[in-house]
Structures are given as structure tokens and as C-alpha cells.
Write a structure and sequence with these properties.
Structural class: mainly beta
Oligomer: single chain
Helix content: under 10%
Shape: globular
Number of strands: 11
Length: about 130
């Protein structure tokens, strides 16, 4: 499975961005599609996730109300809509996949190294 993120960029605080995660290869086993953020000088953390099988979503508390993750169509596995962007949203955003349904959870986010596939990331920079 190959994952490619797109949609990042430079945006002013208060703006919005929509990230896409495109998957190719053996995508049939993918269930959890997670979005992870790595801020400068910080460790990568899970922020949002969706289960492809039923559309269930999971969000880190700090992004609830500003992040909306949705299933994609065709080659797009998932989208992440981020509204009311803040400078602290700056970082590289990665999508990752797991065949395990339950990885869309705090449990899955605590096991970053166990996700199956990762994209190369897309940079978001939010100016104040």
C-alpha cells in the first residue's frame, strides 16, 4: 500500500484546509485511516481517525470541533478538514492505515509504530 497526502500549505490563522490521503495497492484490508501531526520539535501524535468499514470517527480532544475526517471516494481514502486553523496546528500531517478496526482510538494512537503504512506527509504552516 502506498499513501500520498496532499492539501497542505501556508495559511493564516482562522483559515481552513482540506487534506487528502490517496491510497494505492492492496487497499482492501484497510479499515482505520488515521491522521497524525508532528509539530516542530515534538513527537508525532494522532489527531483524527476514521474507520472505512462504518465511518466511525475518533478525534483527539484538543481538535474536536475543528477537525472533520471523512471517507473518500475512488482513489482518495480519507479527507481531513481543518477549520479555524491556529498557529499550534503547524506541523507535518501524515496519514496512516491499519487493518485493525480498533486502532481508531486512544489505544491505536498510543501505538504509532504499529500502524501498517504511512504516507510521506504534507506540511501545514499557520501564520498568526
Amino acid at each position: 500500500v502506498q499513501l500520498v497526502e496532499s492539501g497542505g500549505g501556508l495559511v493564516q490563522a482562522g483559515g481552513s484546509l482540506r487534506l487528502s490521503c490517496a491510497a494505492s495497492g492492496s487497499v482492501f484490508d484497510i479499515d482505520s485511516v488515521g491522521w497524525f501531526r508532528q509539530a516542530p520539535g515534538k513527537e508525532r501524535e494522532g489527531v483524527s481517525c476514521i474507520n472505512r468499514s462504518d465511518g466511525r470517527t475518533y478525534y483527539l480532544d484538543s481538535v474536536k470541533g475543528r477537525h472533520t475526517v471523512s471517507r473518500g471516494e475512488a482513489d482518495i481514502t480519507a479527507y481531513l478538514q481543518i477549520d479555524n486553523l491556529k498557529p499550534e496546528d503547524t506541523g507535518v500531517y501524515y496519514c496512516a492505515t491499519s487493518s485493525a478496526y480498533y486502532y481508531c482510538s486512544a489505544f491505536g494512537f498510543s501505538r504509532i509504530d504499529e500502524w501498517d503504512y504511512w504516507g510521506q506527509g504534507t506540511q501545514i504552516t499557520v501564520s498568526s
